[in-house]
Design brief:
3-stranded antiparallel sheet; alpha+beta
Amino acid sequence: MVDIFKILANEHRLQILYWLKDPQNHFNAEDIEPEVTDYGVCMSVIQKKAGLSQSTISSYLTSMVNCGLLKSVREGQWTYYKRNEKRIQELASYIKDTL
């Protein structure tokens, strides 16, 4: 859990998690459709919205996948990301029950 809290301490990573909760309301439809339903949101779309470098976004997304907050799917040359709702629910339960 400590690693998750470290990741969530960064405002950009927290913002990405928020955007991915409801991608249809946070990204332009032409940037995410039809892939969002099956795969998630492409890294380049997240990068564009965040306004950060590709290497920074890649690092942020990788760390979020590694701790289980996000799931990634590679399709051709693109990588898509979506929230891991099971892990997020575990985090919510941990906060409620332990802290």
